[in-house]
Write a structure and sequence with these properties.
The protein has about 350 residues and is α/β, with parallel strands linked by helices. The protein has eleven helices and twelve strands. The strands form two sheets. A ten-stranded mixed beta sheet has the order 2-1-3-12-11-4-5-10-8-9, with helices on both faces. The chain has a two-stranded antiparallel sheet with strand order 6-7. The structure holds 1,4-dihydronicotinamide adenine dinucleotide (NAI) and magnesium ion.
């Protein structure tokens, strides 16, 4: 019997709406598999909590989360609380304190009808972006000098440590080797003459230990073009924090939008809990209407099961998502349907039960 202890942070806006559907899926897995059980503990942290308590999470929040096997998060951020506060004081705090230095973002087309790219099929768009998640351009280093004066200067410093750069690149080589795929590094050594030259050097250096892995190296601007013109070039991709953030939104754009994009924040050593979340935000424009697409959040459940070593469940959940998208009559409005969040979740669970 395997037991997994899961912390729920539904967060703001549509976060709670989509996390509820993901929890339904987890509970169904528990029901169907006598070898697996879960316990859930919910934390009320987010922007509402901030407005009431003046902080995004409890002072000992990190301590409280430490004992969990995984964190399942909805979305954080809402009008009324500045985004840099909600992001830095909750989401980025968890990513940093728990050293979740790997961000895994699949760019996988689940159904041909979902891509705006003419003539591209499921076979052409199927890759994994591995984004550095702990430092780089989002290290938060810099200064704001002579504020408000004519000589005002702002510095935003990228921080690329040898340890941080090496470990993400090594992780990517390992993943490419394990899955027998090519590895593409995306950087910008021509313009960023310190950080990205360093990145490229380490990519080559570590690569010497992986002569069996075929590699490519693209500048981020060229890579953005290829995402659209020939996505079939990519299998496993490794890139920095900022570039990864941007190109995975492009990845979402070519695979059906934010309602389908997911990301895992992983501490591979399992010293701390890892965190699973849809890529999208709290969507204030549709929050409370019950029409948010829950499939991105449910895909996070698939990633969580993979991470737990229960790959058969990870695959089964993803297969049901494919079936649902092929079936098309029960989809949320962002995908052209008129179903509610709850209806999609209920149908999902029903299909999962039927899929033995
Ligand atoms: P957003 O992702 O919340 O929404 C962008 C657009 O996509 C909206 O039109 C929204 O309706 C639509 N959308 C997003 N998810 C959807 C879903 N599951 N189903 C159907 N439609 C969906 O991004 P936005 O508007 O820039 O940010 C809103 C708030 O969320 C901000 O406070 C921002 O800081 C926060 N945010 C939080 C993230 C996180 O918690 N990881 C990530 C991105 C934004
Ligand atoms: Mg983003």
């Amino acid at each position: 019997m395997k037991h997994f202890n899961i912390a729920l942070i539904p967060g703001d806006g549509i976060g709670p709406e989509v996390v509820a559907e993901g929890v339904k899926v987890l509970q169904t897995i528990e029901e169907m598999d006598p070898e697996i059980s879960f316990s859930f503990t919910e934390f009320p942290w987010g922007c509402e909590y901030y407005l009431e308590h003046g902080k995004m999470m409890d002072d000992d929040g990190i301590e409280k989360l430490k004992k969990f096997d995984a964190i399942y998060l909805g979305a954080v951020g809402y009008p009324g609380v500045p985004d840099h506060i909600s992001l830095w004081d909750l989401l980025l705090r968890i990513r940093k304190e728990f050293d979740q230095y790997v961000n895994l973002r699949p760019v996988t087309l689940l159904n041909q009808s979902l891509t705006p790219l003419k003539s591209k099929t499921e076979k052409d768009i199927d890759f994994l972006v591995i984004r550095e998640n702990s430092e780089g351009e989002y290290a938060g280093a810099g200064d704001w000098l002579f504020k408000g004066k004519p000589e005002e200067v702002v510095l935003q410093t990228g921080v690329f440590s040898r340890k941080g750069t090496e470990r993400i690149i090594r992780y990517a080589y390992e993943e490419a080797r394990r899955s027998n795929k090519t590895l593409t590094s995306i950087s910008k050594g021509n313009a960023l003459n310190y950080s990205m030259v360093f990145w490229d050097e380490i990519f080559e250096e570590v690569g010497k230990e992986y002569p069996d892995v075929a590699t490519y190296s693209y500048l981020v601007d060229a890579a953005s073009l290829y995402f659209v013109t020939d996505p079939e070039r990519f299998e496993v991709v490794v890139t920095s924090n900022l570039f990864g953030d941007i190109i995975t939104d492009l990845g979402a754009g070519i695979t059906g939008g934010l309602g389908l994009a997911t990301g895992a924040n992983v501490n591979p050593e399992k010293k701390y809990p890892s965190m699973f979340e849809p890529v999208h935000g709290s969507a204030p424009d549709i929050a409370g209407e019950g029409i948010a697409n829950p499939i991105a959040a449910i895909w996070s459940v698939s990633q969580m099961m993979d991470f737990f070593g229960e790959e058969q469940w990870g695959k089964r959940v993803l297969d049901v998502a494919k079936d649902m998208l092929a079936e098309t009559e029960l989809l949320t409005p962002d995908l052209g349907g008129d179903a509610s969040t709850g209806e999609v979740g209920d149908r999902f669970v029903k299909r999962l039960r039927e899929k033995i």
